[in-house]
Amino acid sequence: MGQPLRIGMVGAGRISGAYLKTFARLDTVRLTAVTDLDTDRAAQAARAAGDGTAVAGSVAELVERADVDAVLNLTVPAAHADVALDALRAGKHVYGEKPLAADRAGAAAVLAAADAAGLRVGCAPDTVLGTGTQTARKAVDDGLVGVPVAATAFMTTAGHERWHPDPEFYYRPGGGPLLDMGPYYISALVHLLGPVVRVTGATARPRAERVIGSGPRAGDTFPVQVDTHVTGVLEHAGGALSTLVMSFDIHAARLPRIEVHGTTASLSVPDPNNFDGPVELYAEGAWQPLPVSAGYPDGGRGIGLADLAGALDAGRAHRASAELAHHVLDVMLTLLDAAHDGTRRPVSTTCERPAPVPAQVAVA
Ligand SMILES: NC(=O)c1ccc[n+]([C@@H]2O[C@H](COP(=O)([O-])OP(=O)(O)OC[C@H]3O[C@@H](n4cnc5c(N)ncnc54)[C@H](O)[C@@H]3O)[C@@H](O)[C@H]2O)c1
Predict the structure, then answer these.
(1) What DSSP designation does 13 have?
(2) pTM of the complete model
(3) Mutual orientation of helices 322-341 and 176-193 as an angle, nearest 10°?
């Protein structure tokens, strides 16, 4: 292994703590600098990261630092593309939170800039590299369900404003249940079943305003600018059909997260927002737990960036790739377009299924 990849983090909000926790136990990545529009937050994150982590005064300052090899972009979706482009212009690799960008133009600009500069761009979610989705994928690849016919993917909640103190971004362009949570489910479905070639959907926006449920602004209302209940069908290149419900309008449900149904058996796949969880196969009249057979065993937010660091060292492709994230974003945006004009639409992008994560490899 070479030197650790030196990381400059932009955005020190709610999710940043999970990344800091993962970095503390990895020696392939090292946080060297932090910045945030909120300087107190940046300073707090630098303190939490430990001695030697600098606070940069701005994104421009952070991306120019000689001790930053890659920029970790944990800003809100509307800023994802701009921050990534700043980093790429400064010659830095990028790994960012999902979605890759809030719109197609932003995503395309990021991919083009990375290509032109010969730099890597990675994107969350990396949860799907954990033992849950990867064990399920191995079961599908090993033929345990026969030929995949159908999948279901359900994400239901009454809305993130109940717990997030600054929830407005979830209800602006780039947010909504599909763009926020769809990346977990659709990335998992691409790992399991391959890329998507056509989509259709229908959506609803039952409330014009939401109420902040926690933090200093609890009780404040804010406008809803996106559809908050999204249903759709994804047609995979291999022929399987995935049915999707992603909703911020469901108070309680007993729906599974993901299931894959094949010609000989059915598979229950754990929550793709987690790294692990039980994988069960229904065959010969009963659900049977499958042993862990693939995936990073030490999952935590940031393993996708550690995978990218290992990929740079080894000269291989990284798994939480911009190509996958771009395809997933395109699938989601095409589904919303199809829902809005009542059509079934082709998806214009595609991607390779990322390489599977073999069993029992450390994050590298
Ligand atoms: N909160 C979660 O549980 C969670 C989980 C998984 C993924 N995510 C994703 O992580 C990202 C961040 O979410 P969060 O919940 O941490 O949001 P947050 O609002 O808590 O934090 C975002 C931070 O980014 C900063 N920021 C925004 N634009 C910036 C810019 N241009 N330059 C510098 N700093 C900027 C903000 O000041 C804020 O501190 C989102 O894409 C979200 O989808 C969040």
Answers:
(1) S
(2) 0.96
(3) 120
In-domain check, residue 306: no
Q: Which residues line ligand 1 (CB under 6 A)?
A: 10-15, 35-38, 41, 59, 74-77, 79, 83, 97-98, 166, 180
Report phi then psi at 307, rounded to 5: -60, -40
**pLDDT tens-place values along the chain, 364 residues long:** 578 999 999 999 999 999 999 999 999 999 999 999 999 999 999 999 988 899 999 999 999 999 999 999 999 999 999 999 999 999 999 999 999 999 999 999 999 999 999 999 999 999 999 999 999 999 999 999 999 999 999 999 999 999 999 999 999 998 999 999 999 999 999 999 999 999 999 999 999 999 999 999 999 999 999 999 999 999 999 999 999 999 999 999 999 999 999 999 999 999 999 999 999 999 889 999 999 999 999 899 999 999 999 999 999 999 999 999 999 999 999 999 999 999 999 999 999 999 999 986 655 4
Q: Which residue owns the Cα nearest ligand 1 atom 18?
A: 13
Question: In which residue are the tokens 């999707």 written?
Answer: 244
Angstrom CA distances, 72 to 5, 43, 92, 103, 157, stand at 11, 16, 10, 20, 28
- Residue from 35, 115, 108 nearest 72 by CA: 35
| Domain assignment present for 107 | yes
**Residue 215 and residue 332 in one domain:** yes
Under a CB-based contact definition with an 8 Å cutoff, are residues 127 and 184 in contact? yes
Q: Does the bond joining 256 to the residue before it have cis omega, within 30 degrees of 0? A: no
- 270 plus 227 within the same structural domain: yes
Same-domain status, 11 and 139: no
The boundaries of the domain holding residue 76 are 5-123
Tokens 């057979």, located at residue: 293
| Alpha carbons 16 and 26: distance in angstroms, whole number | 16
With the most atoms of ligand 1 within 8 angstroms of its CB, the residue from 19, 22, 61, 74 to mutate is 74
Candidate of 10, 14, 273 to mutate for ligand 1, largest count of ligand atoms within 8 Å of Cβ: 14
> Does residue 195 sit in helix, strand or coil?
coil
- DSSP classification of residue 118: T
* Atom 21 of ligand 1, nearest CA residue: 13
